[in-house]
TrEMBL record:
<dbReference type="Pfam" id="PF02190">
    <property type="entry name" value="LON_substr_bdg"/>
</dbReference>
<protein>
    <recommendedName>
        <fullName>Lon N-terminal domain-containing protein</fullName>
    </recommendedName>
</protein>
<dbReference type="InterPro" id="IPR015947">
    <property type="entry name" value="PUA-like_sf"/>
</dbReference>
<dbReference type="InterPro" id="IPR003111">
    <property type="entry name" value="Lon_prtase_N"/>
</dbReference>
<dbReference type="InterPro" id="IPR046336">
    <property type="entry name" value="Lon_prtase_N_sf"/>
</dbReference>
<feature type="domain" description="Lon N-terminal">
    <location>
        <begin position="76"/>
        <end position="271"/>
    </location>
</feature>
Amino acid sequence: MAFKTLQAPPSLARPDSCSFSPTNSKSCCYQPKPHSRPQARIATKNRLHSSPVLKCRANPRGRIDEVVQLHQDHQTTEIPIVLHQSVVFPGQTLQMQTVEFRYRIMMQTLLLQEGHSFGIIYSSRKDSRMADVGCMVHIVQCDKLVNDRFFLTCVGGDRFRVLEVVRTKPYVIARVQVLKDRKSPDSSNLGSLMQQVEGHLKDVTMLSDKLSWKLVGDKARQLSRMHSPESFSLVVARLFVEDRSEQQWLLELDDTAQRLVREERYLQQRSKYLAAVAAIRGAFGQLFCNEKQ
């Protein structure tokens, strides 16, 4: 296992914990898709960093719109890439620990640079090919452990699109451009779309609480901190969409309205499923009570 994802402490902003086992770089097969609207807003600078312990100022509790992001139009950058078995979104907080030798080398290299960022791309266990779109993560704290391992606390930044794989050894380096949502012709309807999605979120929350399933009410309260439709749609995809392939699809969309429409359909189907489960459970519960009488 290259990285081991760990549970973040309560002092961080509700991180998502998941199994992280990047695939072997030898099996990395990538053919980038043409993209008609490349947008790049990342600039890289190199500067010597003498300390093996990195503590960057960042506020994981802040709004997703307040995540520190680098903006340089019409530029590309080369960044290290880690293949992850979960989809990482902007604003997400996660902790991980390096294990494999190649990723220890990656971290030692990053500590000599100013950016302290790398890219995470979803790759399922069934398919070793990495996706076209991933998420930049910024290291906000890095502690060196024994055996040259590193304990990282990261916050998701910009989405990016891979243009080209530069090399695969000792770890993957790719040339990327930042991906931002384009202006949608349906932008005037974004407010109503957000309200419809929020309505389905309330239904899903109520039914989940009724079934005593994984609580999402606390997650729903996070959405009150989101201001832009784009950030709102990305948080919904991260917190309420459980299918990783669907999450990746939503991450790759560059149209906020399309993402909200797709999320509305997903949540509507989810609420119907939960309602059916609740009805079946209620029927069996009533039958059990009648038999006891």
